[in-house]
Amino acid sequence: MGDIMGITLYRHGLTAENERKAYIGWSNPPLSDTGREATSKWRKSLRLEAYFSQTELVYTSDLTRCMETAAILFPQLPLTSMQGLRELHFGAWDGKTYLDLQHDPAYQAWLNDPFTGGPPLGEKWEQFAGRISTAFNSICRKMEQHDVKEVGIITHGGVIRYLLSEMVASHHSFYDWDVSMHKGHRLVWNTADWRRRRTCTSYQEVPIREKELG
Question: Rounded to two decimals, what is the model's pTM?
Answer without folding.
Answer: 0.93
